[in-house]
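Go through this one:
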Amino acid sequence: MNLKYWLIGIAFLGLNQAALATDLKTITAQQQLSKQERVFDAVIEAVHQSTMSSQIVGRVVEINYDVDDFVPKGSVILRFRDTEQGARLDQAKAGLGEAQARRKEADDEYQRVKGIYARKLVAQSELDKAAAGQKAARARLDAAQAKLAEAKEQLEQTVIKAPFSGYVTQRHVEIGETVGVGQPLMSGFSYEHLRATVQIPQAFVDSVRHHGQARVVLKDDQSVDAESLRVFPYADEQSHSFRVRVNLPQADYGVYPGMFVKVAFVTGDVERLLIPVDSVVKRSELSGAYVVAGDGRVSLRQLRLGRRIGDKMEVLAGLTAGEKVAIEPVAAGIELKQQR
């Protein structure tokens, strides 16, 4: 009799555990369509990078920035001695004043001769001569204005300003040095706009062009979607690979030009077995999830995981489609202890 009641108690205990297990919130593991990607190594580059060169022959008298200095856009980087350019500007201004006076004199002369000609007091040749003098005065005025503009530009070229905000990477000249036209002065780049440059095999270039989607994998497996792609229209003669520029949205990602990153290009669609990220549990170096069987029994299943896709995690092995996974690992762990 005692044995009978003991067996009934065990049966009720099992039913009670199964009932508790059915209270767990679960999700059915299913195959879901997601983007297929191919990952390649890439190098970070600055979109805005340049070397300022001299447009005149001159002597450097002022340098305001050096390597690793931050330069705001429009700031004066260096100056040349501008005595000669200033004198040319003054001369051009004087020449313009003279040309304007000559122009006024010629206009007045033309109007005077025109009035006399209207009264039949001078010959046609006198009117033609006054008109020619007026045209010559206009031409001299145009030339003087062009000379003034040239003198202003030459004076402006004695002051080198930053075309964009960025950091100085190299200084090529010293104070007191005389430089020639085209000689490098200072190099720099901007952190505001970055891109990743990657070489992809020719077998993938068509799918990369077709989908036009990629993400740059940064440190700590964080990634950012590309703002745009630029696929070069020709392959390298040695490696037969195509160069692709992956532009990043403007932000601070903690990466710098010259650093290695990885770029994942979308090349198609593929079915993956996905489960919620929150359902994954970590035990030392192992990963797993609590699986709830049809009879309500809970087990901790070791899984081999792929990459994270949004709020889902790819399962490569250890789980099959149709099995139920607990989405509250803490509650599932308590239930497993009670069943044991």
Q: What stands out?
A: Residues 82 and 262 are 49 Å apart (CA to CA). The first strand starts at residue 26 and ends at 28.
